[in-house]
Amino acid sequence: MSGFNKVVNDYNAALAGLDNNMTLMVGGFGLCGIPEGLIQRVHDMGVTGLTCISNNAGVDGFGLGILLEKRQISTMIASYVGENALFEELSISGEMDVILTPQGSLAEKIRAGGAGIPAFYTATGYGTPVGDDKEVREFDGRPYIMETALTADFALVKAWKADTMGNLIYRKTTQNFNPMMATAGKITVAEVEEIVEAGELDPDHIHTPGIYVQRVIQGNFEKRIERRTVRS
Amino acid sequence: MALTREQIAQRIAQELQDGYYVNLGIGIPTLVANYIPTGVNVMLQSENGLLGMGPYPTEDAVDPDLINAGKETVTTATGAAFFSSAESFAMIRGGHVDLTVLGAFEVDVNGDIASYMIPGKLVKGMGGAMDLVAGARNIVVAMAHANKQGESKLLDKCTLPLTGVNCINKVVTDLAVLEIYDGAFHLRERAPGVEIETIQSLTSGKLVIDGEVREMVL
């Protein structure tokens, strides 16, 4: 089984090969389901010029926000970035390029990337600034724009459980972008809450099959809550 | 009297039908969940990957792994399901969601909507709004009829960058319920005590009044 053992024991090994100017996918929706320890390690490594693909850009001081603080991201591809004051400053000053992408198109671009599909047509964004300069084609009388696939040098994902072979299970709404990103990284690193022996996960319950995952690391998660709302 | 935000939500809730799958946007649309009519069961879709969103949790049930698209902690309703963002937008783009309610800065007589970006101000992003307006079969827009300066937000042509084109067919404002087709707003209902003339004067886009305009029942 050794050839299939994906478990690495430290963050050094988890991100070995990550370098300046690479493209990085980072899973999560807001702060929910983000690979906290891997992001911290990218921060500590100090790599720069990153193209970062993630639905959001974290908040000031947490999540991808810490990479913004060190000016490590040169291009950000995201659907919504409203939670981050520093983000505003960097995008207005031109220190960082921002490619705003509709959330569903972002998910599908990543899914397509992982599935070997170079592009697809969608009605989303037709007639809007998102559709500017994109190929338009009509199907059954409705116009669609062509969106191209996304892949990455590294995909950093967060899962609830992994087995040693890299099979992953997500919990509740932490799934979000993680399963697609896991398929779209040349090297996919999964940071998880628990690693079990191969065979312990029910094959019926696996969300991401291990073929997509190159490295698995046990993490510790703060799981910061962005908007704590309770019943009155 | 112009409707309050809560009353707009209350009127929109009358559009809900038993067995509907519904996506509610942020702001007034979120309030619609508070006015679901008795005997009507709906499943709320949250585009971050939850079908069957329940109310906010009690203090001891807060789970950081369970949030809605507004990043608020929530619970699940009976029969809920979790899934990926790709799956979530397959539901939306594929036209499987029965009703979508969202806010807007402007709508126009062609059913175009501008809701995500004001030039010169911070661009926060469209999130899932462009996918929702492109994919939903049935969209209700919740918005104020005019801005604070008294300028109409119901136009012949949107002036702000668009979220989608030719996709909106119903608008509920603080003054009226309007349908959009044949290149015009069609006035269907007026808020209690609001004169048709008031609505006319605050609707910049072509407005058609055909037949009786009933007063909203809340």
Q: Which of globular, elongated, flat, extended, rod-shaped describes the shape of chain B?
A: globular
Q: Whole-Å distance between the termini of chain B? A: 13 Å
Number of domains of chain A: 1
What Rg of chain A do the Cα atoms give? 18 Å
Please tally the helical runs of chain B, counting DSSP H or I stretches of 4 or more residues: 5
Keywords:
heterodimer; A: 232 residues; alpha/beta; Glutaconate Coenzyme A-transferase; eight-stranded mixed sheet; 27% strand; globular; B: 218 residues; eleven-stranded mixed sheet; 16% helix
Give an overview of the whole structure:
Chain A has 232 residues and is α/β, with parallel strands linked by helices. Chain A has a single domain (11-119, 151-218), classed as Glutaconate Coenzyme A-transferase, CATH 3.40.1080. Chain A contains six helices and eleven strands. In chain A, strands 1, 2, 3, 4, 8, 9, 10 and 11 form an eight-stranded mixed sheet that branches. In chain A, strands 5-7-6 form a three-stranded antiparallel sheet. In chain A, helix 5 (103-115) packs parallel to helix 6. The model of chain A has no long low-confidence stretch (mean pLDDT 96). The model of chain B has no long low-confidence stretch (mean pLDDT 96). Chain B has helices at residues 5-13, 28-31, 85-93, 129-135, 196-201, and strands at 20-24, 42-46, 50-53, 76-82, 99-103, 106-108, 113-114, 139-142, 154-155, 170-172, 176-181, 184-190, 207-208, 214-215. Chain B has one domain (5-211): Glutaconate Coenzyme A-transferase (3-Layer(aba) Sandwich), CATH 3.40.1080. Chain B is built from five helices and 14 strands. Chain B has 218 residues and is α/β, with parallel strands linked by helices. The longest helix of chain B has 9 residues, at 5-13.
